[in-house]
Amino acid sequence: MMGAPAAGIPYWRLSSFYFLYYAFLGAMMPYWSLYLQAVGLDAAAIGVVLAVMAAIRIVAPNLWGWLADRSGRRLLIIRTGAFAALIAFAALLVRTDLWWLVAVVALHSVFWNAILAQYEVITLASLGEQVHRYGQVRLWGSVSFIVAVVGAGQLFDRLSVTWLPQLLLALLVLIAAGTLLIREPAVARREPPAGGLRELLGARPVQAFLAASFLLQFSHAPYYGFFSLYLEQHGYTRAATGLIWSLGVIAEIGVFACAHRLLARFGLRAILLASLLLAALRWLMIGFGVESLALLLVAQCLHAGSFGSFHAAGIEFLRRYFGAAQQGQGQAVYAAVSFGAGGALGALLSGLLWDMSARLGFVVAALAALAGWWIVRVAVRGPLVEAPGGARETMREQAR
């Protein structure tokens, strides 16, 4: 149940940008590898393109996060990123050879990665004392993802998937326009706390969380990069592919809608551990059960755990462990380590394994998720600090 918007927070303004942002991802993620295949790239080359897109997230979010925390101009950075990403992506209409594609997606990704981490900070600041409403705001991104993935699947059963860049450009125009409606909340500037970012990153809970995030996103690489190709190889239409993708996001919506209640009841550590186990199970079900629609549907429902609950717990982890003056850098480190380094290495390996065995790629993914579960279980004994006020003091002790 989504719940009614709370009084005093700009619920629909905050939600609307997530709606636009994730509509772009919904149109892109399931069909990008199909597009790259259609313009002549093999699996290894597709892996290279995907890895470059992910690798940019190692550096770009940290650069933008540092700049935002120092300047306080988060909204300007978001708008600059959106308009520059639009202009860069338009170059895709010129050529489609491998190295041109690599150059275009690299430039686009530099600016694209200026947007979400800083918008997350604006959202949390806008929510103020009602940060438990984050999941209910963010779920509209999941709604738009479903609309886009299903609509694009229907479209590309009728049109060539080579029309994908035009569709994505139209969505980028809407995103750039949407940034003009964002309002930056009035938040008092705070000086970084004693010890700074380096001390936070030296704490065992933070290191365990980042390692698990890296491994979880590494494990998602065969899914994000090659799942649509896997389905097409086994006779699924693109419309069916879109519907299968959308089921996972429907499950994600359910988690975001009740994330604050799950966090209150089970705590951060338990949710992170459960998410990693569910991810491992999901990849094995997809790898060995692709010919069974029933198994695929169950596996897609596990997206609620492999992504939804982990991300909700991760955002809350960052909010509690990083001070107001370092939220941008905290979000950027998370994006760089997980979606950046984890996604890049996973994409490269998935591309290399694909021609050998698609199933092997999902087995490796399951092992990576299990490794993340083991790290959190062993490195963080007992629950992560559940009282926000005590997080820093506890971490200083653990970092010594």
- Name of the CATH homologous superfamily: MFS general substrate transporter like domains
- Estimated share of beta-strand residues: under 5%
The domain tally reads 1
What would CATH call the architecture? Up-down Bundle
Low-confidence blocks of residues: 190-194, 384-390, 393-400
Number of helical stretches of at least 4 residues: 18
Quote the CATH topology.
Growth Hormone, Chain: A
The CATH class name reads Mainly Alpha
Mean pLDDT: 85
Q: Structural class of the helix and strand makeup?
A: mainly alpha
Helix content: over 70%
Terminus-to-terminus distance: 44 Å
Major sheet summary line: none
Order of helices and strands: HHHHHHHHHHHHHHHHHH
Rg result: 20 Å
**Number of DSSP strand runs:** 0
Shape: globular
Give a written overview of the molecule.
It contains 18 helices and no strands. With 400 residues, the chain is mainly α. The protein has a single domain (11-185, 196-399), classed as Up-down Bundle (Growth Hormone, Chain: A), CATH 1.20.1250.20. It has helices at 11-28, 32-38, 43-71, 74-90, 98-112, 116-127, 134-156, 164-178, 196-201, 204-233, 238-257, 259-266, 268-289, 293-301, 303-321, 327-354, 358-379, 391-399. Helices cover 77% and strands 0% of the residues.
